[in-house]
Design brief:
heterodimer, A: 570 residues, alpha+beta, 7-stranded mixed sheet, 6-stranded mixed sheet, 15 helices, 24 strands, elongated, B: 466 residues, alpha/beta, 5-stranded mixed sheet, 4-stranded parallel sheet, 18 helices, 13 strands, disordered C terminus
């Protein structure tokens, strides 16, 4: 024991001695060694009120010898004997102490859990068959693992408000609420919008929204995620799909440069919901509602499902080879200086790398992206609404993305640029190109998932897959390289943008030499300085830091402060 | 400034030893500062202001004073829990939320002798280094709030509160804060939350021990009204002299509040441990009602475990072990604890043989189900569950196995909650079932054994089987 560093303490968990840093909460210590302690109210990103009492464990300390009495002798492992205390303690708020003993499976600990489960179910409605939480309900799960299996409760259950709209996106069933207060703490501590609270007392306690207010902040749906039961449900998702039918794809959000880590839940190529995925270097456990719900357009009527070419002022469906051949034929008659390529910072690094290849192939001199700047929200939404501006900087070598658009516009005006190839952007609505200006072009190619004002003007329209239908990498606002993973197939004849670019390069007589996204990444790693030495498989589910940008994510900075102050585990 | 003069009541009983209640119901006494000062009021504060702070704490430690609010924790020891390297402000809170059923002592101090409390608080504040103190009064004491506010203004006007008290350089303000009517506000961390303007949800300990992280997360000492009054008398007598009253480890006097089936219920200040339960009932209270026999006593407020009239209690260890009947129990902290109950808040509830124990338990369960704050699971769900079972029991709609359930529910609350309310609401049920099981079972109906089901469970089960 003498070699123990002062900041480490020895703790016995379920009979085995371990070493933890001082200040480690018992619940985290137990989790780290595989002794999962069940809990409802505890959440590492929120303060610990210790109210659910589900994490009660048995603890003990070495005996305190009376003055003058013989001090206890260490055993052969060098540890003092443990005197177990009759009163259980909560594992969520208590921290490890030197030579402490913890029992997570002793008769006392199990008896406590059984008792708490029985209490929680006493007034909880047995409406599981119609509850959205089924399949991801900790009340159900712990009932199976720690419950008694039968109820001694013979009384009438307490009646409370049901189907309450606490906000535009969140619905509350108070009878299902187990009063863990996670949602209250979230709105207070994370969203700075403390509109939720408890009223009334005892078993009649109800969760409610402050009179005249509503839970309307842009982070409200995170309360649904952290609700351990079916009390808070999402208006958007409720009754749409059983969770166990869905496929989960870990990917990233593309609505701004933060690149929140998310899980996409889909079934049979349809996305049903998106939830944030923990990444302590990006989005913690949260994401904004506006980003979370921005997916319904993916299976909308406006999706482009096949390539189109314009003849006599009208679009008609075409095959991919026909559309690409027409493009190649047109471009062959133009010199590089007559062609501008407008790509997008919504494209992946791999797609942008092929854009670079295409530009070289064409000898084009005008290449830029459409910037998309707004205001940051002080939490997780970055002022930069493009997810991969940093990737565009690195891969396309753009010093100041968007600065070249004025020149493109004036050269179109002057008739020096005769063709524009537009990938994954809307030049009319987002790029500041008027339909009149684009009308001066001899040739306009537009590739996009949806029909919009620019595709309407284009000579060739190519249906490109959206973010959920493709894979690749992006570099977020802090310079973190992250993976985008394909969750669903695009509709109809849609192709992933990298495939479109590869085929376009080929139809122009070039050879990109790639057959997969991973291969493109290998080329990037070989050619782009910042990516040197990186391998596709290295990036992982949580990404890795690529460059220093000096930018921070406000919500994370506050989380770090709260962690440093000991308020949360983090 | 004229004070409020109460009609003088009966004279103290010969077995009483009045210190704190010296002026209660006294003919010619009123609440004005002039009256108080005529009898030596605020002299102890002046004396204390001339002492070293550590010396005051030492006197209180030597006195052996134990908290009169319920837990009986040594007062002087509590005061030393303030971290020695503390740089934050220190607060003192006087807990005037007297809400334990069967307890009605603090209200008389507040109503009739407010300056005694203010003097005690001022001495305590000086000792612990607090320049700001709060008197937390329960909502149901509107009159007390008016009286104390007036007394505080008088103390201000006479230089016993405010800046530079009596030229000592010590500043102190006392504010009265009125609660909104909740039993849980008597729990010190619940009280602190309430004082901060929040729902009185008790805090988890650790880390929120008030002496280190109390009001506004600053060191805070919370003492009961009666306890703080004793501080004044400890300064007057000296700790050693004070410790000669009462008995060893149970020093001083305390006020017993006797209610229930006695001829003359009321409040009695006695030396701790010098009076037995028999003397309380038969002498101080004039005995049981005619023709009645003693059935049970709850000796320390409603959450104390009940004592059965025919129990034989073994107290003391080894050579000191002795057997006591309920009549022989000296009314002190240690003996009542050894008898399996507690001295608690001093509320003695006497029940004779006319009382149905099922009814009594249901009465208690009603109170606790109504007062559970609802923060933590066992107490929130368990207290109402116990009430619902005893509701059925007194209505003749319970079966014998419900008594086992009742006991099991109480055991699942006891020791597993955030605050002591868990014990407060489970101990009555535990003790009544342990000691009066036969009577409770007799009130149940065996014919209902399989007839009582939870309709909702039944419906759900039927739905699943379809």
């Amino acid at each position: 024991m003498s070699e123990v560093k002062p900041d480490l303490v020895d703790v016995q968990i379920d009979g085995v001695w371990h070493r933890f840093p001082k200040g480690t909460r018992l619940i985290e210590a137990c989790r780290q060694v595989g002794a999962e302690v069940p809990h409802y109210c505890y959440h590492p990103k929120l303060t610990s009120p210790g109210n659910c009492r589900m994490c009660l464990v048995e603890t003990g300390m070495p005996p305190r010898s009376a003055p003058g009495a013989e001090s206890p002798q260490p055993d052969e492992s060098g540890h003092l004997p443990i005197v177990w205390m009759p009163r259980p303690v909560i594992a969520c708020a208590n921290t490890v102490a030197p030579n402490m003993g913890v029992r997570t499976t002793s008769p006392l600990a199990e008896e406590c859990r059984k008792g708490v489960m029985e209490f929680l179910l006493a007034n909880h409605p047995l409406d599981c068959p119609i509850c959205d939480q089924v399949g991801e309900c900790t009340l159900q799960e712990y009932s199976v693992e720690h419950g008694k299996g039968e109820s001694r409760f013979r009384e009438q259950k307490v009646k409370k408000p049901k189907n309450v709209a606490v906000g535009p996106r969140v619905r509350l069933d108070d009878e299902r609420c187990i009063m863990c207060s996670r949602c209250i703490r979230f709105t207070d501590e994370i969203a700075d919008d403390p509109v939720l609270g408890f009223t009334d007392r005892g078993s009649h306690t109800v969760l409610t929204v402050y009179p005249g207010r509503e839970l309307a902040n842009n982070y409200s749906l995170n309360t649904v995620d952290i609700c351990p039961v079916g009390a808070l449900t999402s208006n958007d998702f409720r009754f749409q799909m059983r969770v166990w039918f869905m496929r989960e794809t870990d990917t990233i959000d593309v609505n701004c440069a933060t690149g929140a880590n998310i899980t996409v839940f889909s079934r049979q190529n349809k996305i049903y919901r998106i939830v944030p995925r923990r990444n302590n270097d990006v989005n913690s456990d949260w994401m904004p509602d506006s980003h979370r719900l921005n997916f319904h357009w993916i299976d909308s009527e406006a999706r482009l499902t096949e390539p189109m070419v314009k003849e006599h002022g009208r679009h008609r469906a075409a095959t991919w080879s026909e559309a690409l051949a027409k493009t190649a034929e047109k471009l062959a008659s133009l010199s590089g200086s007559e062609i501008a390529v407008i790509a997008s910072a919504r494209m992946t690094n791999e797609e942008l790398f092929l854009v670079r290849h295409l530009v070289r192939q064409l000898g084009a001199t005008q290449i830029d992206i459409v910037p998309r700047m707004g205001e940051g929200d002080g939490y997780l939404i970055s002022a930069d609404r493009n997810p991969n501006t940093n990737g565009a900087r690195l891969v396309l070598g753009l010093a100041r993305p968007g600065d070249g658009l004025d020149r493109v516009r004036s050269e179109i005006e002057q008739g020096r640029i005769k063709a524009v190839l537009c990938f994954q952007e809307n030049l009319v609505e987002d790029g500041g190109f008027s339909p009149e200006l684009l009308g001066k072009l001899d040739f306009l190619l537009a590739s996009y998932p949806l029909a919009h004002s620019t595709t309407g003007l284009a000579d060739v329209v190519l249906p490109g897959a959206c973010w959920a239908e493709k894979s690749g990498t992006m570099v977020n606002v802090t310079g973190r390289l992250q993976r985008l993973n394909k969750a669903v197939d695009g509709p109809g004849e849609t192709r992933e943008p990298w495939e479109i670019l590869r085929d376009l390069i080929a139809s122009l007589g070039g050879d990109s030499g790639v057959t997969s996204v991973a291969e493109i990444f290998r080329q990037i790693a070989a050619e782009v300085t910042e990516f040197k030495g990186l391998a596709w498989g290295q990036i992982g589910d949580l990404g890795l830091p690529l460059i220093e940008t000096g930018e921070t994510i406000p919500a994370l900075e506050r989380e770090k402060q709260r962690k440093a102050a000991g308020l949360i585990v983090g | 400034m004229g004070g409020i003069t109460y009609q003088s009541g009966r004279a103290p009983h010969a077995k009483e030893h009045r210190v704190i209640f010296r002026n209660i119901d006294r003919a010619g006494w009123d609440t004005s500062i002039d009256t108080y000062r005529k009898e030596g009021g605020y002299e102890q504060l002046k004396k204390a202001l001339g002492m070293e702070r550590a010396a005051i704490i030492e006197e209180v430690k030597k006195s052996g004073l134990r908290g009169r609010g319920g837990a009986g924790f040594p007062c002087g020891v509590k005061w030393t829990f303030i971290p020695p390297n503390n740089t934050k402000p220190v607060y003192l809170i006087c807990n005037g939320d007297e809400s334990e059923p069967g307890t009605f002592k603090d209200r008389y101090i507040l109503h009739q002798d407010p300056h005694q409390l203010i003097e005690g608080m001022a001495i305590a504040c000086f000792a612990v280094g607090a320049n700001l103190a709060y008197l937390y009064l329960r909502e149901e004491f509107p009159e007390a709030a008016r009286i104390v506010e007036k007394a505080i203004a008088e103390a201000h006007a006479n230089g016993f509160l405010g800046k530079n008290i009596q030229g000592s350089g010590f500043d102190l303000e006392i504010y009265v804060h009125r609660g909104a009517g909740a039993y849980i506000c008597g729990e010190e961390t619940g009280l602190i939350e309430s004082l901060e303007g929040k729902r009185p949800y008790p805090r988890i300990k650790p880390p929120f021990f008030p002496a280190a992280m109390g009001l506004y997360l600053c060191p805070t000492i919370v003492n009961n009204v009666e306890t703080l009054c004793h501080v004044k008398h400890i300064i007057e007598m000296g700790g050693d002299e004070y410790a000669k009253t009462g008995t060893k480890n149970n020093t001083g006097t305390r006020i017993l509040c006797v209610s229930g089936d006695v001829q003359k219920p009321g409040y009695f200040e006695v030396e701790v441990g010098k009076v037995t339960m028999g003397e309380v009932i038969n002498d101080l209270c004039g005995g049981l009602r005619p023709g009645r026999k003693l059935r049970a006593v709850i000796p320390g407020g409603s959450s104390a475990k009940v004592l059965r009239a025919d129990e034989i209690f073994t107290v003391g260890r080894g050579d000191d072990a002795r057997k006591l009947t309920i009549w022989d129990i000296p009314m002190d902290f240690d003996t009542l604890a050894a008898c399996g109950s507690m001295a608690g808040s001093g509320g003695v509830i006497v029940m004779d043989d006319s009382r149905s124990m099922s009814w009594v338990l249901n009465n208690l369960n009603n109170f606790y189900a109504h007062e559970s704050c609802g923060q933590c699971t066992p107490c929130r769900e368990g207290s109402l569950w116990m009430k619902k079972i005893t509701d059925r029991l007194v209505a003749g709609k319970a079966s014998p196995s419900d008594i086992d359930t009742l006991y099991g529910v109480a055991k699942n609350i006891d020791g597993r909650t955030i605050c002591a309310f868990g014990e407060a609401c489970s101990w009555p049920t535990e003790s009544f079932v342990e000691k009066f099981r036969d009577e409770l079972v007799a009130d149940a109906k065996p014919s209902l054994e399989s007839a009582i089901v939870n309709p909702e469970t039944l419906t759900a089960a039927a739905g699943l089987c379809d």
